[in-house]
Amino acid sequence: MEYSPLCHSLHAFCSSPVKKKLVLLSIMFLIWVYMLYSCVGYCSTMPSSVADGYRAKEPGSAVGRRTEGGRMDVVSRLLAAPQPWEDVESDYEEPSIRTAASRDLLNNELDADRADEWDEARGAPPRAPQPSAMSSFSNGSGSKKLPQAIIIGVKKGGTRALLEFLRVHPDIRAVGAEPHFFDRNYDNGLEWYRDLMPKTLEGQITMEKTPSYFVTREAPARISAMSRDTKLIVVVRDPVTRAISDYTQTLSKKPDIPSFESLTFKNRTTGLIDTSWSAVQIGIYAKHLDNWLQYFPMEQILFVSGERLISDPAGELGRVQDFLGLKRIITDKHFYFNQTKGFPCLKKAEGSSKPHCLGKTKGRTHPNIHPEVVQRLRDFYRPFNMKFYQMTGHNFGWD
Ligand SMILES: Nc1ncnc2c1ncn2[C@@H]1O[C@H](COP(=O)(O)OS(=O)(=O)O)[C@@H](OP(=O)(O)O)[C@H]1O
Q1: With 342 labelled, which of 19, 68, 98, 174 sits at a CA distance of 20 to 30 A?
Q2: Is 140 known as a binding-site position?
Q3: Is the CB of residue 297 less than 8 Å from the CB of residue 306?
Q4: Model ipTM?
């Protein structure tokens, strides 16, 4: 046999039992690292219910770092592994949104006041898969489907709370991020959209929420072209409070913006309201609804009261489950009222044993607005609200 100095030194090294063990341990460690690496790669293709626990969110943070191609690097993925219950806000981008177009999505999200959604996303609750999702995970069954139900609005209405509550239902699978497909990303095509969705099994409903759809002129025709049977959910809230909430969000990002008062009026002396300001415009619900009714019958649209979602979450969730044709699984047993937050929270988030409230950017303190300005806005919205009550057959009690 040819003499090899390498073989010789290896033989000499391995001859001692302690060193043998060391070599064995090193090999085991390498195998473990390899398995971990493979698993992380695999997890990124899991349905969102599973992957949610491993999602990274805030752009720029270590947890959300992405490579040039949009994929998260391995270190980021590992860092994104479930942190012991960070305060979660959920308007974030899912790891699954990582096509070139998702960069636009990210940029779009960061512009104007939608940036809020990113700020609040710091880590998702670790989410163990539900039994159905687990079987889908383990045998690779299930498929991505276009959503059968969409929360289309309204911005600052309570849409995130509704989606997070609905995700507790085992027959609902929802994409956590706002895809903005029917407003900003429509050119990417339906396959791009479908690819964002989590895998579902027969009987499970795929959902997403993008509150800006409600005020997007093209959205009704586009959703109808995808499927005329799509169920639409709108969370509505007193338009005056909604406008202040909207302004508060913008203010938190851009502290130098003009006062609420000066943005509200075209002319302060005449008291003429500036309806071109989006914070005012979004609250003219009757006008936006009219656009939807050109494409969808009223029976296909459910209106959830943003106020009742806070005062009686189980009651509103009951209506939503009925509307979706699901068994009423989410009940008052799932909620508790968190005094500190001032909101109902989940006793157990999906797949976790710990309580879960929305993050710090939900329930920001609103600035004090002069009562006269509030009154002027109330007067402005009143006829539109009345029209809206008439159209929906429901008095939301904002006046
Ligand atoms: N359970 C629970 N927890 C926390 N917050 C709750 C909840 N239910 C409803 N809300 C209200 O939701 C408001 C934010 O609405 P959205 O989630 O639709 O906002 S966004 O458009 O997605 O940015 C948010 O508005 P602000 O209070 O003005 O921040 C909340 O009042």
Answers
A1: 174
A2: no
A3: no
A4: 0.99
Residue 119 in contact with ligand 1 by CB distance below 6 A? no
Q: Is residue 120 part of a domain?
A: no
Q: How far is CA 139 from CA 118, 134, 142, in A?
A: 33, 9, 9
86 within a domain of the structure (yes/no): no
Is any atom of ligand 1 closer than 6 Å to the C-beta of 51? no
Task: Write the CATH number for 273.
Answer: 3.40.50.300
Ligand 1 pocket, residue 363 CB under 6 Å: yes
> How many domains are contained in the chain?
1
Any binding-site annotation on 76? no
52 is a domain residue: no
Q: Is residue 381 part of a domain?
A: yes
Strands 149-153 and 205-209, sheet pairing: parallel
Q: Which atom of ligand 1 is nearest to the CA of 178?
A: 22
Tens of pLDDT along 243-284? 999 999 999 999 999 999 999 999 888 889 999 999 999 999
Question: Any idea how long the chain is?
Answer: 399
Q: What is the pLDDT of residues 288-332, one digit of tens each?
A: 999 999 999 999 999 999 999 999 999 999 999 999 999 999 999
Over the stretch 200-238, which tens digit does the pLDDT of each residue have? 999 999 999 999 999 999 999 999 999 999 999 999 999
Could you tell me the CA-to-CA distances from 151 to 160, 240, 262, 385 in Å, in that order? 9, 21, 32, 21
Which residue among 117, 150, 160, 366 has the greatest number of ligand 1 atoms within 8 angstroms of its CB, and so is best to mutate?
160
